[in-house]
Write a structure and sequence with these properties.
With 419 residues, the protein is mainly α. The protein has one domain: MFS general substrate transporter like domains (Growth Hormone, Chain: A), CATH 1.20.1250. The chain has 20 helices and no strands.
């Protein structure tokens, strides 16, 4: 059976939620303008997005294979489409919180299902890691598209306007279109069921017991720290562009797309590079380059004064250089996800995907809240220097993750070839 129809559907599902999830930076800026909330209060939107992701993944990941991956994704797409339709009808900060809570729940269901489905539609580890990077690169294409889609609805002449909420009608239509495409795609899920057919309680317990494995524990630490870095920058870059670099609201959102574009390009390139080079060396080089870029780019960012900048040509160099950090760190997340999933049998991919989503969500919330607090107390330049600490910690955790993955592989080889 050809797997291309379902692969295309997975990519489109990821595209939809890439726009919704990573609009949090744009919405953080806009709720400050439209509803007059403070920076630290706006930062709570990240928690409304990420905590439902973590809770939903923790509670349902081990049961998704019983519900069916396709059925689960269809339910998530239908529900988020309805919530998007309600967003412009209820222009209030509490509705923004509700939207991101719904987005978090639905994305948890989508991501667990997508990650688990990849094991059913790829032949081996090499195809798995390559497809994972291409999938994540397409996710960043969705993020990139989202910046331009949202900025098209922003009214620079009236910063307090709520006209930007009309973007959610377009996002509702996109969600329903993704639903229709998935409905027509075929997926054989028989290989996802455990041979022993354990009870739901046992499946949930098995997911928790995965955390006790050294390889899984080291992965969890690495994933948490990586997402903390990525989300702290992604969520606050539009505000950094507006408050520190003095760009207009729409230009701040548009120029934040450079981060998404560089990350998408980095993951696309990694999809090819990782077929030839060891993943650990590629990730280490990328993280070292990221740290160097922080030290080079942030000194260029000085609080601007005077007229608001409204064109790309007039934007300061820092607005172009700092977002290139996305290219450097891009391969980390899909690569370590692929390593851990490839080390497990297919029937454990759904619970492992649940753990991936849980700790990724916790990392994202932590990064955004810490950066939002630092942004308000110390300023945007100092807040982004904070990323050097988790970058250093990821380098250390990846070293031990690499050693543990080699030991795990050697153990499996010993079992397969005892003689």
């Amino acid at each position: 059976m050809s797997h291309w129809p379902i692969k295309i559907s997975l990519f489109i599902n990821y595209f939809v939620f890439a726009i919704l999830l990573n609009s949090v930076g744009t919405v953080i800026l806009q709720v400050q303008n439209s509803y007059g909330v403070s920076a630290s209060s706006a930062a709570i939107l990240e928690a409304f997005k990420d905590l439902p992701i973590a809770i939903t993944s923790f509670l349902v990941a081990s049961f998704v294979s019983r519900l069916g991956y396709k059925r689960t994704m269809l339910a998530a797409l239908a529900f988020i489409g309805v919530v998007c339709l309600a967003m412009p009808q209820l222009p209030a900060f509490w509705m923004s919180k509700l939207l991101f809570a719904a987005t978090g729940v639905c994305f948890a269901l989508i991501k667990v299902s997508v990650f688990a489905t990849l094991g059913l539609v790829t032949r081996d580890q090499k195809e798995h890691v390559s497809t994972m990077n291409f999938l994540e690169s397409f996710f960043m294409v969705g993020v990139l598209s989202g910046y331009f889609i949202f900025s098209a609805f922003v009214n620079d002449a009236d910063p307090g306007s709520t006209s930007w909420l009309n973007v959610y009608y377009a996002l509702a239509a996109l969600s329903f279109a993704a639903f229709a495409i998935l409905l027509l795609a075929r997926l054989d899920e028989s290989a996802a069921h455990s041979p022993a057919a354990p009870s739901p309680a046992r499946e949930f317990l098995d997911m928790l017991l995965l955390c006790l494995r050294p390889l899984v524990l080291l992965f969890v630490v690495s994933a948490f720290l990586y997402v903390l870095i990525e989300q702290s920058i992604m969520s606050w870059l539009p505000t950094f562009n507006s408050r520190i670099l003095n760009l207009s609201a729409s230009l701040s959102i548009q120029m934040a797309s450079i981060l998404a574009a560089s990350t998408a390009l980095g993951r696309f390139a990694a999809g090819m590079v990782l077929q030839r080079f060891d993943w650990y060396r590629v990730l280490t080089v990328g993280l070292l380059l990221a740290a160097m870029l922080v030290l080079v780019a942030l000194p260029m960012a000085k609080s601007a004064a005077g007229a608001t900048i409204t064109t790309w040509a007039a934007a300061p160099l820092a607005a172009f250089v700092f977002p290139l950090i996305g290219f450097c760190i891009a391969p980390v997340y899909p690569a370590i996800n692929s390593v851990i999933l490839s080390a497990l049998p297919p029937h454990q991919h759904a619970p492992m995907a649940g753990l991936i989503v849980v700790f990724s969500a916790l990392g994202g919330t932590s990064g955004s809240l810490i950066t939002g607090t630092l942004f308000e107390k110390t300023g945007g330049e100092t807040a982004f220097y904070f990323s050097l600490l988790p970058i250093s910690a990821v380098l250390l955790s990846l070293y031990f993750f690499k050693r543990s993955s080699e030991q795990h592989a050697a153990k499996l080889d010993g079992i397969d070839d005892p003689g």
